[in-house]
Amino acid sequence: MSSRHLFAMGITRLRKDPGTVISFEFSGTIPDLKVVSSYVDDDEEITAVGTAESVHGGIMITGTISTKWKGECRRCLGPASGSLEVFVRELFERVEPDSPQLFEGEIYPYTGDVIDLQEMVKDQVLLELPLAPLCREECKGLCVSCGADLNLGSCGCDSVAIDPRWSALDVLVDKDR
């Protein structure tokens, strides 16, 4: 089965009977989900679970999207990972195949009797990936002087060393402290 149709859903029943709600659960992979310092592996399973409801103006998709991510810790540059679960509520609006309408990103257009949720899933995962991930909340990072990983222990550098480029500002510091 093509990865293009892993998140596709038939909506004929929804279009014929307004107010109808159907449940769905899809799992699959989507390649190239990357932001600055985190990403979803190309072979990592992404799951979308929820409901599709026929509403005035289109099909309302409500549910959750979940997957696991990896990245580089912003403090120690070590490996970071986690999982994310995103709540979604998005409107898919029917458009004619040759329609010149431009959409500003507030809705997802569809044609025919099938909605492909892949673009919505991709957008939501990319929006939720951490831009500056941490390996753990209490990560101590790297020493600014020698670059040692402070999570492994103290490096022995003088922790009160002042960058000489800032020494001109010492005149502004209260001498009584």
Topology readout:
Elements: E1 8-10, H1 12-16, E2 21-28, E3 33-34, E4 38-40, E5 46-55, E6 58-72, E7 79-94, E8 108-110, E9 114-116, H2 118-128
Parallel strand pairs: 7-8
Antiparallel strand pairs: 1-9, 2-5, 3-4, 4-6, 5-6, 6-7
Q: What do you see in this structure?
A:
- This protein is 9% helix and 36% strand.
- With 177 residues, the chain is mostly beta strands.
- It folds into two domains: 126 residues, no CATH class; 36 residues, no CATH class.
- Strands 2, 3, 4, 5, 6, 7 and 8 form a seven-stranded mixed beta sheet that branches.
- β3 and β4 form a beta hairpin.
- The N and C termini lie far apart (70 Å).
- The mean pLDDT is 86.
Shape, please?
Answer: elongated
Q: Uncertain segments of ≥5 residues (pLDDT<50)?
A: none
Question: Can you summarize the main beta sheet?
Answer: 7 strands, mixed
- Count of discrete structural domains: 2
Total DSSP E strands: 9
Query: Average pLDDT, to the nearest integer?
Result: 86
What share of the residues lie within helices? under 10%
Instruction: Work out the helix count.
Output: 2
What Rg, in angstroms, do the CA atoms define? 25 Å
- Strand share of the residues? 35-45%
**Which H/E pattern describes the elements?**
EHEEEEEEEEH
Alpha-beta content class = mainly beta
- What distance lies between the first and last C-alpha atoms, to the nearest angstrom? 70 Å
